[in-house]
Amino acid sequence: MQTDVQDMYRRLKARLDRVVPDFELRLKAEVAVEIMRLKQERNAVILGHNYMEPALYHSICDFVGDSLELSRRAAETDKSVIVFCGVKFMAETAKILSPQKTVLLPSQKGGCSLAAGITAEDVRALKRQFPGVPVVTYVNTYADVKAETDVCCTSGNAAEVVRSLDSDAVIFLPDEYLGRNVARETGRTFYMPTPDLTPAQLQRPCLIGWKARCEVHERFTADDVHRAHEHFPAVQVLAHPECTPEVTAAADFAGSTAAMVRFVKESKAPRFLLLTECSMADNIMAENPDKEMVRMCSLRCPHMNEITMQDTRDALKFMRYVIEVPEDIRVRAHAAVARMIAIRGGTTGYAKP
Ligand code: 13P
Ligand code: SF4
């Protein structure tokens, strides 16, 4: 083994011994060293979402975090190339913020059921149905949808963004469950729009939502939370706000991926169950060797799973897959994302009702 591969292997072994088998660490240490070399040659920065697999997450990323933190990082970097180890809507957000940079996504299959669940025409139709009502769009959407939006939000700042609008009706898209959780958090009635719902019928303050859902988080149930509390003494159950309101209400804490990371770090509890994408529990476990993660309801996001270290290496080697956003869409989407970034704070998590 070359010295730099050996060093990388030792570093990964020290951090990931409890979560990744040895043969995998040896293999990935080699790929990680190649990536570090290419990263320097290409003057690139690598941003990694909290859902990246543990070896990738702990070896090659310059910054890791939730989608809010990573969009801030993408706006601030002075590197000429951004490799986004996440899904397409995240890489598009980086391109919207940094149009002069080359943004690469390692796999063309990194989609998202929320982003696929709404079109720009859907948003235009809602604006015609509810004229003058401001539109908040979750960042888990494509650029043409963001372009129809007044302000974006992430799961880390959604309630703050809604409050900042000072409007008694808000269109909140596209995640039904995040919308219902935010409505509860901000004391608003939630409406699922039907073709015959009129502005005059709205009981205000309210949120008008949409029917898209995260294919991972929609599968957790309140029963999962109750069973965890029943079977594991002193367990703290954490849920992402893309889970149903029944799940977030039953959980001990609900918040964005970054808020969950922070909660575990700061908590004195001995063990945790994370109702979110399962790589995150591995990543947290590696960083908090004194804490235990309960293995239950392990669900991997199939889109995040597409981002491998080998594909990340090839992204830098062949400068693929380049993310482009048409300039007229980018400019309008930029206004919505920039408004969100200007609202400081975020990643605070949602208080239990
Ligand atoms: P965060 O905004 O918490 O990073 O979540 C993004 C996501 O895709 C959750 O499924
Ligand atoms: Fe989309 Fe859900 Fe995957 Fe997040 S976990 S990228 S919301 S499908």
Q: Nutshell version of this structure?
A:
This protein has 353 residues and is an alpha/beta fold. Helices cover 43% and strands 14% of the residues. Mean pLDDT is 94; it is low at 347-353.
Written overview of the protein:
With 353 residues, the protein is an alpha/beta fold. The protein folds into three domains: 2-110 and 304-318, Rossmann fold (3-Layer(aba) Sandwich); 115-213 and 327-347, Rossmann fold (3-Layer(aba) Sandwich), CATH 3.40.50; 217-293, 3-Layer(aba) Sandwich (Rossmann fold). It has 15 helices and 13 strands. The protein has helices at 3-16, 22-41, 54-57, 67-76, 88-97, 120-129, 143-146, 158-164, 176-186, 222-231, 245-250, 257-266, 279-287, 309-318, 327-342, and strands at residues 44-49, 63-65, 81-85, 102-104, 135-138, 151-153, 169-173, 189-191, 206-208, 235-239, 253-254, 271-275, 292-293. The chain has a five-stranded parallel beta sheet with strand order 6-5-7-9-8, sandwiched between helices. A four-stranded parallel beta sheet has the order 2-1-3-4, with helices on both faces. A four-stranded parallel beta sheet has the order 11-10-12-13, sandwiched between helices. Helix 7 links the parallel strand 5 (135-138) and strand 6 (151-153). Helix 1 packs across helix 2 (22-41). The radius of gyration is 20 Å and the shape is globular. Mean pLDDT is 94; it is low at 347-353. The chain binds 1,3-dihydroxyacetonephosphate (13P) and iron/sulfur cluster (SF4). 1,3-dihydroxyacetonephosphate is lined by residues 50, 66-67, 140, 154-156, 214, 240, 242, 256-257.
